[in-house]
Amino acid sequence: MGDAVAGLRRPFCVGLTGGIGSGKSTVAALFAAQGAEIVDTDLLARELVEPGQPALVEIAAQIGGDVLVNGLLDRAALRRRIVSEPETRRRLEAILHPRIRALAEAHVYSATGPYVILVIPLLAENRGHYASLLDRVLVMDCSPERQVERVARRDGMGAGQAQAMLEMQATRAARRAIADDVLLNEVDTDDGGGEDLARRVMALDLHYKALAVAQRR
């Protein structure tokens, strides 16, 4: 536990994870609508690379100024680099992951909702870094084919690049292996899957609230 949260009692915390295109953001929003407090490590990462932030300076120094445009991080350029250059990915993770973990801890301990949903896309790859913050793990699950389809459509990229990004992450089996709960999300909202997903989130919300109350006793 960091010095910033020493002596504080941690709220009940659920780690929400899943591969790219699995629906993490959609489900996080559904939990937020039920009153859960959301801490999203992707959003924390974005804060860390705002202009003037030390992490952005370090990225430019270690990875190269070509990933900056007018002082802003060129996310598309960086994404291309990390897909094709494993060493670039390792350097980026070394710069960002400790900072993200520290911010996540501070946000979790300061949360005031009934429980916390901590969104960690790469939890299967970095579980040891977050284990002390989590009481439960919820995995968003869908087929790799559906992931590639969604990412290609969402980010306007070719299926080949989407597949390469998918292959950089933990396997579907590895994510399911760390799950306490699994939400299958094969049907897109536009195809009528929204209502069913919302009902399943509401059921999990009641379960997590009950577990949070039991933890406080």
Percent helix range: 40-55%
Q: How much β-strand is present in the residues?
A: 5-15%
The parts where pLDDT drops under 50 for at least 5 residues are: none
The spatial strand order of the largest sheet comes to 2-5-1-6-7
Number of strands: 7
Envelope shape: globular
Q: Helix segment count?
A: 10
**Over all CA atoms, what is the radius of gyration?**
18 Å
Label the structural class.
alpha/beta
Explain this structure:
The protein is α/β, with parallel strands linked by helices. About 55% of the residues lie in helices and about 15% in strands. It has ten helices and seven strands. A five-stranded parallel sheet has the order 2-5-1-6-7, sandwiched between helices. It has a two-stranded antiparallel ribbon with strand order 3-4. β3 and β4 form a beta hairpin. α2 crosses α5 and α3 packs antiparallel against α5. It starts with 12 loop residues before the first strand and ends with a helix. The model has no long low-confidence stretch (mean pLDDT about 90).
